[in-house]
Design a protein that fits this description.
With 178 residues, the protein is of the alpha+beta class. It has a domain of 112 residues: minor pseudopilin epsh fold (3-Layer(bab) Sandwich). It is 29% helix and 24% strand. It has 1 helix and 8 strands; from the N terminus they run H-E-E-E-E-E-E-E-E. A 4-stranded antiparallel β-sheet has the order 3-2-1-5, covered by helices on one side. Strand 7 and strand 8 form a beta hairpin. The longest helix has 52 residues. The mean pLDDT is 87.
Length: 178
């Protein structure tokens, strides 16, 4: 008589594996959420940095002044930095798009991620054909939606158009208004 042998797992073994898996998920979830928030912050900040670099390089390449600002209508700069961010050729430094073909790029700011605040003498950036922005060094402050300072950043733009990103540990004035 041959004996039939069945292979498989017992109910106890399955419950044990599920319990260990549940504990691992509970322990790993906060770290994963932190990682996801870090990635959202980094992506949003680098999108702004890429647009700023694009404005600077466009001014150099096109040998003309290029303005970077926020706009609600894609024609004039908004002094409160509300709306989309735009880059355009601005030979008169008026802060207005003279011709639709002068509009180089528009970025729809992802407000569900956070907000940007600009601090400088002028309400917009003008990159000269040399790549510098004379008299208008400033900072963008990025605050995530939940106002958590661990994910807040400052994007510093100096007079020669160079960009640096700092966080709360290196930027003492970094705060998110509620």
């Amino acid at each position: 008589m041959t004996r039939l042998r069945l292979f498989g797992y017992s109910l106890f073994e399955l419950c044990l594996v599920l319990s260990i898996s549940a504990i691992l998920v509970i322990v790993a979830l906060p770290a994963f959420q932190d990682f996801a928030q870090q990635e959202k912050t980094q992506t949003t900040v680098y999108q702004l940095v890429n647009l700023l670099n694009y404005a600077r390089l466009s001014a150099i390449k096109l040998h003309t002044a290029v303005t970077f600002c926020a706009s609600l209508d894609h024609e004039t700069c908004n002094p409160n930095w509300l709306g989309d961010f735009m880059v355009f050729i601005d030979e008169t430094a008026a802060g207005k798009v003279a011709n639709k073909k002068d509009l180089l790029r528009i970025w729809q700011v992802p407000l569900e991620q956070g907000t940007f605040r600009w601090q400088a003498k002028q309400n917009y950036l003008i990159m000269q054909p040399t790549g510098i922005n004379p008299g208008n060094a400033g900072k963008f402050y990025y605050c995530p939606v939940d106002h958590n300072l661990d994910y807040a950043r400052a994007i510093v733009i100096n007079f020669v158009g160079r960009i640096a990103i700092t966080d709360q540990q290196t930027e003492s004035k970094l705060h998110c208004d509620h």
